[in-house]
């Protein structure tokens, strides 16, 4: 699933100032939006249709991690939010990761042992 950086928008279209990157692969379109100090990666499956959309998640953990790595954020923590039912946008074909600003970390991994505290996610 190698991703290719593509133009963010056609010259004739108004530019979304938050859109900072677009990548396309065989089965995914990835858009990066700057949101304050964070970056939101919106991933849309281009393979799923009808019945498949209703019955599956488009991406595994490993695939999301690989996408994050391929678009240049492999060294940063990211979070995925599971919204209230009324706030769901995109369904299973769309996934959103918020890449935390540099220096912000969530205590996670083999040696974490506990939930994060303010000390684990210092302000930059």
Low-confidence stretches: 114-124
Under the CATH scheme, which class?
Alpha Beta
Total helices: the number is 2
Distance between the termini: 33 Å
What does this protein look like?
With 124 residues, the protein is of the alpha+beta class. The protein has a single domain, classed as Streptococcus thermophilus LMG 18311 protein like (3-Layer(aba) Sandwich), CATH 3.40.1720. The chain is 15% helix and 27% strand. The protein contains two helices and six strands. Strands 1-2-3-4-6-5 form a six-stranded antiparallel β-sheet, with helices on one face. The N and C termini lie far apart (33 Å). The C terminus is likely disordered.
Keywords:
6 strands, Streptococcus thermophilus LMG 18311 protein like, globular, single chain, disordered C terminus, alpha+beta
How do the strands and helices of this protein lay out in sequence?
Elements: E1 4-6, E2 19-24, E3 28-35, E4 38-45, H1 50-55, H2 61-73, E5 78-79, E6 94-99
Antiparallel strand pairs: 1-2, 2-3, 3-4, 4-6, 5-6
What's a quick, concise take on this entry?
This protein has 124 residues and is α+β, with helices and mostly antiparallel strands.
